[in-house]
Amino acid sequence: MDPIEPLHSEDGFESDASPRGFDDSAPRPVGSTPLEEALLSRLDEDKAQDMVLIDLKGKSAMADTMIVASGRSHRHVGAIADHLLRTLKEQGLGKAKVEGLPHCDWVLIDAGDVIVHLFRPEVRTFYNIEKIWAVDSAHRMVRD
Hints:
The protein has 4 helices and 5 strands. It has helices at residues 34-45, 74-90, 121-127, 129-134, and strands at 49-55, 65-70, 97-99, 106-110, 114-119.
């Protein structure tokens, strides 16, 4: 009898390939400030999915930049949020406002000039907040 392959590896992630709908080759957004770059690097290291950076300068007084990303599960979203909060503290922004951390369906981190939205994929699809801000908004996606 052939051995049965596990559905998940020991660390809890898919054993063979990336989760459905996620393209590892998608370019990482480009930040224009050290804070944006630090947050995007942390998201990249934590394997956040479908990262989008939206430039809000001149479009909103609430922030200069919005970053939207997804995690694979509640636990992944929570871990990413925790790591981003540590990164913000290292950048001298230890008093960032956080909403949604107990449930980890949608976590919002307000770091002043940068707002980060972390979603589970189903919740992100439902709310589709990128579409609200995407009209005539400059998305910085490709790093040259």
